[in-house]
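Inputs:
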Amino acid sequence: MKRITLSILAVAAAVCVVLAFGACSGSESDTIKIGGLYPLSGPVAVYGVEAKNGVELAIEEINTAGGIDGKMVSLIAEDDEGNPEKTVNAYKKLTAKDGVKMIIGSLTSGCTQAITSLAQAQKVVVVAPAATMASITDAGDYIFRVCFIDPFQGTVGAKFSAENLGKKRAAVLYDVGNDYSVGLYENFKIAFEAAGGTMVAEESYNTGDKDFNAQLTKIKNADPDVVYLPDYYSTVALIARQLRAQGITVPIVGADGWGGITENAGDEVLNGFYSDHYAADSTDAKVIEFVSKYKTKYSATPTAFAALGYDAMYVIKDAIVAAGTTDIAKVRDAINATSGSYVTGNLTFDAKRNPTKSAVMLEIVKKDGALTPVYKATVNP
Amino acid sequence: MLLPRYTRQPLIPDPGFVLYIDARRLVLLTIFIQQLVNGLSLGSIYALIALGYTMVYGIVKLINFAHGEILMVGAYTAYYVLRTVGASPLGLALAFAAAMIVCGITGITIERFAYRPLRSSPRLNSLITAIAMSLILQNGVRVLPFAGPNPRQFPTMDTIMVPFGAVSVSNIQIIVITVSIVLMLILNYIINWTKTGKAMRAVSFDMQAASLMGISVNRIIAFTFALGSVLAAAGGILYATAYPQIEPTMGAMPGLKAFVAAVLGGIGSVPGAMLGGYILGVAETMTKGFLSSQFADAISFSILILILLVKPTGIMGQKTRVKV
């Protein structure tokens, strides 16, 4: 009995010490802590790794230049595996244990949606780099994003297919269990029909499916001249493979979820186009500078996720500079008032804290034996 | 009531209309056959995996839930072989050999260290151990530095379409269907025509009596696990060739479907597992093709429930009398 009491006392003492130190490190304010929530492993790992690289590159530049108002920026990154439940756990760890007040993440719409209302209630600023689902920022005025939204992106895909490619008969294969995929499909359909085209096949599958032959056989028999595949790169790679194997040779069109597909698929994605946030081969001075810096540090061409992560960090930095303080309500107001030029274009927030930006269409081509996305067209909102 | 023949003819002869109907029927038939081929190719993979479940169950009355993970180990082994030697027919043959050896050894090891010590304990203990083995293998591969949690692209041969009239079949589908049929024929030969096969049947029939007749039960059980794992390795490679993406959790879903196929066909029955695999594959594909993809899993599992309601031992399962 005595031993138990003693051990309880010991634990209590230890907890006190930890709390005391915790409080201590919380009050010390010569660093600005940024929380990062990314899928660093799992089926959408490319997004997370790229975005983390982008954020780290931005932080390195900021710290080399003397920090923000003399304060160094430190990043605490957590892996959410692209899984909404794990995002919530990682978010709780960041806010409760690390005392983070500003978060960049997460990358997919589903994961970001999982934390927005929590963050709003706890007054934590969330800047989502690439969560394009329309309802993400509905949670409240602490939630921002630096990317365009799905209604726009679906429209871009449809307009591009109908006008630039001159297609009339579209087929869609989408994931019914994924808000991102469903949102893109709905908006693609509206815009494609408005542009005078017909939807000849609208097929779906469930998240995690690997066999698409049945749906693709139906699509093939509907004889489309373009197929829209709104999903993430790892699924699209599987679909594209089976689609070409079925002898469907028409162009395939997708959205920003395709970023990273070139390393994860083979020649079957050739004759493929996707809407994205920026083009790495753009001639814009900011893009050229970013791409060259990124290439020096990571020896790879950055995808849009890296650029968006980089921009998200700079939006936060500029807001803290403008607010002159790290007081979270003032930083929030400063982000809301952002008006500047970033790697992925000019950025101002509308009433729902969504940026007004243009999209680019990229085409996947084979260059020196490797698949590369190249700039094809710009579509304005 | 049968209408008189002439009323079926159009009043005004319209050959265009008649042709249209015929063309439509032809298209429907073509789609049906095409979906049937898709279903058979998926079903033959399920059948291969289901054989492993059913053989192990037939002999030690254990549902080896780690079977799906053996499939994953096979796919990963093949991945490394194919990446080194290239995805040629010869490379594929090498990959099959390597994956079968690795999986055979894995199967024997699991049996020796996880299941054999528990053979005389209640069946629930072995079942839970099997689930644990499955999780250990999944997460073990996740933390291996050279495998990791991220999906990888499985190297495959280029797809070539082979037309059969209006229906076209890809070379991968042909490989999947033929390899699985050949393997099932070999398995059938081993079970029914060799001495070891006879011993396997004897152990399955009555383990104690078999051991009294001088059969080394441990050796036969180890051999059964090796045989099942070899088939799982083949199933894994075929699955990864058809759906070229591998990840540590890839075995879970096909493993579950194959388990359903085994139960459907009558667990413990080898021809039943093959039949169950084909039924499940075709049912799934037909549902996706003619109804909706959302019903695919629901319908395949409903078939299982229906069959178990009507015939609790599965399609080809035999009623066993328990002697007290």
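The interface with chain B takes residues 41-43, 45, 81, 176, 203-206, 208-211, 213-215, 217-218, 221, 234, 237-238, 241-242, 244-247, 264-266 of chain A (CB under 8 Å). Flag for discussion at group meeting.
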